[in-house]
Amino acid sequence: MRPVRTLPLRRAPLAGEALDSWTEVMSAQLRVPMGELLVALGLRREDESPTNWAPWMTRLTPHQAEHVALATGIPPDFLHTMTLQHFDQRALELDRERRQVNGSFMWARGGGSGSRFCPDCLRKNGGRWPLTWRLGWSFVCLTHRRLLADFCPKCTSRHRKRPHPSHLIPSPGHCDHVSRSTESAPRTRCLHPLAETETMRFDAGHPALLAQQALLDLITTGVGAFGVYARDPQPAMAVLADMRGIARRVLIHMPAPRMKGLVPEELVDAHFRAREHNSALTSSQRRAPLDPGRAAPAYAETTAAGAVAAWSILGQADCRQAAPHMRELLDAIVDRGYWTSPTVTRNWGRHTSPLLEAVHLKTIAPTLWPNAALRYRTALPTPSLPTATASQLTARARKIPGLIWPLWAVRLNPHPQVREHLAAALAASLLLINSRLELPDAVKKLGNLISQPNLTHVLQALRDDAHYEGIQLALIQLAAYLDSHDVPIDYGRRRRLDYTTLLPESEWIALCRRTLTEPGAGTRHQVARCYLFEKISGLPHTRIPAPPRDSPNIRNSRVRFPYVLTPEASAELDQIGRTFLDRNRLDNEPLTWQPPAELLDGLALPRADPGDIDLADLHRRVRAGQTSTSIADELGTDLRTLRYVLDQHPAPATKPTVHGTSRGLKGLHAARQMISKEQLEHAYVQQNLPFLTIQRETGINRKVLAALADEYGIPRRPHRPRGTLDRAWLHEQYVVQRRTLDDIGQETGMSGTAVGARAREYGIPTQNNRQPKSPRQEFTSAPEVLRPALGNSYALRRLRVFIQGIRYPTLIEACQTHGIRPPTLTTQLKRLEEDLGGPLLIRAGRGRQLELTALGHEVVRAVENWAHTLADQSRETWDRATVRHSHQKKRKARPRPTDAPGVDGFPLLLQPAVRTFAGRHRLHRFLQAAAYPTLAAFCRDVGISPSALTPQIQQLERDLQGQLLIRGQCGRRMRLTEFGEKVLAVARPYTDLLATL
Fold first, then answer.
1. What is the pLDDT of residue 879?
2. Is residue 234 classed exposed, middle or buried when 0-12, 13-18 and 19+ CB atoms within 10 A define those classes?
């Protein structure tokens, strides 16, 4: 081997200069042919013939690096930075053994691919070439802000594609291409000064300059931290793969008008000019393949257009801002008939980063179905393809109840609210997040609680809400929390428990006795059982063994149950639930559990935080009897939120009293607090007082006292009427004079029940001695034929109906004319015929009109003759009919409702309706119902039956003597009459006063 000799003249390489450029400068300085210098440097053997390939430009072997270092005094490490090996795994992929660059990977350009150049730089530095000009991603000189040149303007050849001719001395800064003008002409060098080449120039801040700077920083550092990669830096190879994938599709699919949305116009025009020029060449002369972007583009204009387009997308601050720019590319792809699925970026090249996938998913998010949006988590800053395994989803399903936790159902309820299936749909949605499960599979894992159409309907309702992104983020965060944390309840096991023995009726009755709660008439027990079942199992109440039959009564009771629940009853129900879990060997699990509410903090959700509601104010309103709708309106919330708050924090019960509830279980509860066992035993047993006397002293109903005595275990005396009654006298008064038992009891100081008991002992048969509600009327001047029908106040009405009815050919026409129902008219005529002793009419038949019988004609004549006398009859005749027989005592009238005070404070129009508390309540109901489209809609919201509201409105109309509203029918809203509008306007200022009375 030839010994190493140091060069007589040495010239240090420039920073970033390529090894082949430095050797050419040294050869020109020493004035020796290039081949001799390479031999002296140990880069070629003496007996080695010149080739078109110089592997030392790509990678130096250790022996070559050491040899060059000895000859030039340049350290080997520095020499390695002057070859393409310096950019291995940062901007290209290098085969170290063969010392070749993979030209189809990452737009890499190997040693035989030539090099671009900047004319200004060559003029300034004496024809020295930086190594970065060989990279496929170099297209702009940042120093002189101009596009790099690809070809010599004279001979149109690419530079540095082959090593410099070995027998010639280089001419730095000049074209060294050797060619002949004709086949017979000698080969000559071009030697055109490359500094005279013209290329496009850019202003400061041009996107091409910014994109080139970002690429050079990426290649230099090996890490991409610009744009969408700022929060999650990626390796340089992954970032370049992303940019290549986008750039290639921009160059293939985007026409010039669309491309100008991503790339400056002048660069787009230059790219298409280069493309047209390349297409016009023959296949042997063509400088670039017709499929642009697969390999490194041959034209700097094409490289710049693709790189700027990719940078305009990936250079945005985040995926959300990159999505509109990406949309331009995807629209162009779709216009060409290609489908852009969520996984299409997997086909955009190897080594692409997750952030390219995230930008793509963020772009197509508005077009995805709601289940797909959850699957790819498009609401996150960086969406991604699902990664959850089957075992992870099975574990997640065990942590999710069939109905999502109440707080989450309340906060995520969209506008307008979803009344049904919301909780089940949200629970199933948790299994769609980051998973490949389809809708039926997700529903099946939670027990098939919702059908696929209903689930789809709810998801679409969530998507239509303005806070859809916040809803998605809440579900995504909840699913991530469940995957990363242990949950103290296995809901999968609870769904399999047998709930047949949960809260039997006897246990419910005992609970009500302990907590002073009204047990209801069977319905409330069913509702309480369903309530506890949902609380323990997380399933809907319809899955409970022997579920209650669906009816308006059950639905209303379920809605109202949180309003009647008290803290004591809630605690007792919880204790029963814990006992049930203990029986099923689940004593290590809590009764209920909810994920931390902090997961929802900071999210824009449809409903406000229930914790912001003033509990004391809410409890006061509930126990004051204010309707749920008015409470929700005044507190600025909705009914579902109110029910949740009352479920978590029941309103304390008011102190029980016997006033207004003297009978029933509530009266019994009140009586327990008012009279103890010792007090009742002292009065009833020791003082021998009857329950009636104790009632007068305490105000507790005697039947409640009797029930309380049974509960206290106080033996009751057999009931015997006090006082004595003579049988003959009792028979005379009861049977002959037909006096009532109450009248006789008031005269003798006994109750009517006691008198009846004594009558049964004497064997006196029971009979109905009650006087008719309508007293007999004496008409002395009435004709004889009419007198049997004048026994009560309805007589004249029947006669009037009869006279009016015979004027028409049929009774149907008479009813239609006078607004009378046919059954009512028929009944009145039958009673009149019974009183008069014969038929009056022959009904109309087919082809025959209504006819009078002989008795009918006689009655008509009698009525016509008597009508004049009746008009002159003294009012005293009518008054005498109201006078009872002298021996009859007037029955004690039932106490009427107490007049409400402050009537004079209301307008004169409203005074007839506000004289009683009941009237004020009816007026307040009318004011609330007027805001709804129909009375049925109001009844559903407040939880009352329409059959209870309609009589109240009708009674209010009678009090005010006018029609207030016209009921809504199918397809039409309820509307107020002119009188109703007037009443509404007058009464509206008194709404608060009416609500508190």
1. 38
2. buried
Residue that has been written with the tokens 């998801």 in this structure:
459
Q: How far apart are CA 465 and CA 470, in angstroms?
A: 10
Q: What percent of the chain has a predicted confidence (pLDDT) above 90?
A: 43
Neighbours of 339 (CB within 10 A): 7
Cα gap 744→727, rounded to integer Å: 13
Q: Can you give 553-578 as a three-state secondary structure string? A: HHHHHHHHHHHHCCHHHHHHHHHHHH
- Burial of residue 925 (number of CB atoms within 10 Å: 0-12, 13-18, 19+): buried
Say which DSSP state 913 is in: G
CA distance 125 to 173: 9
Which residues, listed in sequence order, are joined to residue 289 by a DSSP beta bridge?
none
* Distance of alpha carbon 704 from alpha carbon 672, whole angstroms: 10
Q: How confident is the model at residue 738 (pLDDT cuts 50, 70, 90)?
A: confident
* Side-chain half-sphere exposure of 181, counting CA atoms within 13 A: 3
Please give the Cα distance from 611 to 716 (Å, whole number).
Answer: 52
For residues 891 and 902, what is the distance between their CA atoms, to the nearest angstrom? 31
**What's the burial of 14, exposed, middle or buried (CB within 10 Å: 0-12/13-18/19+)?**
middle
* DSSP codes, 133-162: GGSTT--EETTTTEEPB-B-TTT-PBBTSS
- The size of the chain, in residues, is 997
Question: How far apart are alpha carbons 28 and 34 in whole angstroms?
Answer: 8
Amino acid identity of residue 773, one-letter, is K
Residue 460 tokens, joined: 């679409």
Q: Is 51 exposed, middle or buried (0-12, 13-18, 19+ CB in 10 A)?
A: exposed
pLDDT at residue 885 is higher than 60? no
How many other CB atoms are there within 10 angstroms of residue 657's CB atom?
14
Instruction: Give the pLDDT score at 7.
Output: 80
For residue 651, what is the DSSP state? P
So what's the pLDDT on residue 902?
62
- The Cα–Cα gap between 57 and 46 comes to 18
Neighbours of 597 (CB within 10 A): 14
Q: Are 708 and 668 in contact (CB under 8 A)?
A: yes
Task: Show the DSSP H helices in 624-717 as ranges.
Answer: 628-635, 639-648, 664-674, 677-681, 691-698, 702-712
Q: How confident is the model at residue 577 (pLDDT cuts 50, 70, 90)?
A: very high
Q: Look up residue 775 and give its amino acid.
A: P
Q: What's the rounded Cα separation, in Å, for the pair 296 and 418?
A: 56
| Alpha-carbon gap, residue 510 to 528, rounded angstroms | 13
Cα(939)–Cα(936) distance, rounded to whole angstroms? 5
- With tokens 């060997």, the residue in question is 585
Pairing relationship of beta strands 188-189 and 223-224 according to DSSP bridges: unpaired
Instruction: Kindly tell me the sign of the dihedral angle through the C-alpha atoms of 378, 380, 386, 388.
Output: negative
**Distance separating alpha carbons of residues 404 and 423, to the nearest angstrom:** 5
Helices (H), 518-606: 523-537, 552-564, 567-583
- Burial bucket for residue 724 (CB in 10 Å: 0-12, 13-18, 19+): exposed
CA atoms of 573 and 409, how far apart (whole Å):
22
CA distance 546 to 535: 17
> Are 486 and 533 contacting, i.e. CB atoms less than 8 angstroms apart?
no
